[in-house]
3'-5' exonuclease
Amino acid sequence: MASWYEGPLAAFDTETTGVDVETDRIVSAAVVIQDAPGTRPRVTRWLVNPGVPVPEAATAVHGLTEEHLQRNGRWPSPVMQEIAEELAEQAVAGRPLVVMNAPFDLTILDRELRRHRASSLDHWFETSPLLVLDPRVLDKHLDRYRKGRRTLTDLCAHYGVTLDGAHDAGADALAALDVVRAVGRRFAARLERLSPAELHTLQAVWHAAQARGLQAWFARSGTEEAVDPAWPLRPDLPAAA
């Protein structure tokens, strides 16, 4: 039987108005499905008119202007419903979902569902759990002493993955999926006997340990920044708007 990293995988990515999961909005998203390495991926994309200003700094990252989104994007409510349905389909099908920096993308989706659908991400996975594979968490645990940054661009370079069109949701999702396959192959001796469900549970532990390490480093360097240990979804804050 093929190992999980050689089998069917899905991936999810978003582009947003900023980096605050509580207040920023999704402007584009994509889900990529690939049945096996080297097979043609199936990509579903969404473009969203968030109904709020899009900062120039965000546009500089992903290239989506407020005018373009107003003219071509759809209203958030039906889009968030469709994204949640698509992710739920992956869970029912048993496909692990690759999400680079999962606490960001999944949490901002959760907040959009709460904002526009009076729902939550957990609601969609009450019967079939979502099994997440986060390339950043996996890489940082398996190769913890490697120096340097671990952005998607950095991981692609390290694992020999092509990233065409960084900060395009579809391109980023596919690249993250390819990185996870590469991580699986490189560390096969440590990963191939673990199921996606076991890996999901372990990543929550690994991410929490990584967060504690980063928090300690911040404390030593005098940086007043809190690091959330939750993975893959941050708890809801009552003040979210």
